[in-house]
Design goal:
The protein is 27% helix and 19% strand. The chain has helices spanning 26-39, 50-65, 121-135, 150-155; strands spanning 15-20, 69-75, 82-92, 103-112, 141-142. A hairpin with a 6-residue loop joins strand 2 (69-75) and strand 3 (82-92).
Length: 188
């Protein structure tokens, strides 16, 4: 709680514990996505870029209608500025002797606002997402790490994958419209 003067109501201090994202957080989730893209060397473009409108629907569907996905945020109350975010979802693979149901977890979109880095927000997001996956019975968790994020993931127990990740980017139809991506853009 923040200090208060007699006769006033104390206001709670901002919390740094992760909480589930709500639809009111979508503008901030899109802003943080732009921060992540810029950190990866991808120009996110202006506020009116078509990808941002698509992202609004993308986040809305995943936050409100999916039970196999969790989006956590650190920062203010819903609709207030956020410091960090990250997502985990369940991916489905062929069953194997060790992972009999074929489910795996995947972490993505973990980003901390530039002004809030180095304070453990990303690690709290990672720990919260791993906990959610573990509570869901998923103990094989994957991610792709940026150079900036790798120390956070290593400290959380992630190791180099047994099999190297590979990508295939096919040519896009230049007549298909804006926002379809370009060959060589591996930012997801």
């Amino acid at each position: 709680m923040t200090p208060h003067t007699p006769g006033s109501t104390p206001t709670p201090a901002p919390t740094h514990a992760p909480r589930p994202a709500t639809p009111a957080d979508i503008p901030e989730l899109i802003r943080l996505r732009a921060v992540a893209l810029a950190s990866l060397g991808v120009d996110p473009g202006p506020a009116g870029s078509p990808w941002r409108e698509t992202a609004d629907g993308w986040f809305r569907e995943r936050i409100t209608a999916r039970t196999d996905l969790r989006c956590l945020v650190v920062g203010g109350a819903p609709g207030e500025p956020l410091l960090a975010t990250g997502m985990a979802w369940v991916t489905y693979h062929l069953p194997s002797p060790r992972w009999t149901d074929g489910r795996r977890g995947y972490l993505d979109g973990i980003v901390t606002d530039e002004t809030a880095r180095g304070r453990g927000h990303g690690r709290r997001i990672v720990d919260g997402l791993v906990s959610w996956l573990n509570d869901s019975g998923i103990h094989y968790i994957q991610l792709h790490a940026s150079a900036d994020g790798e120390p956070v993931y290593t400290a959380a127990g992630f190791t180099q994958a047994r099999y190297p990740a590979m990508d295939l980017i096919t040519e896009t139809d230049p007549d298909a419209g804006a926002g379809t991506g370009t060959a060589g853009d591996t930012t997801s």
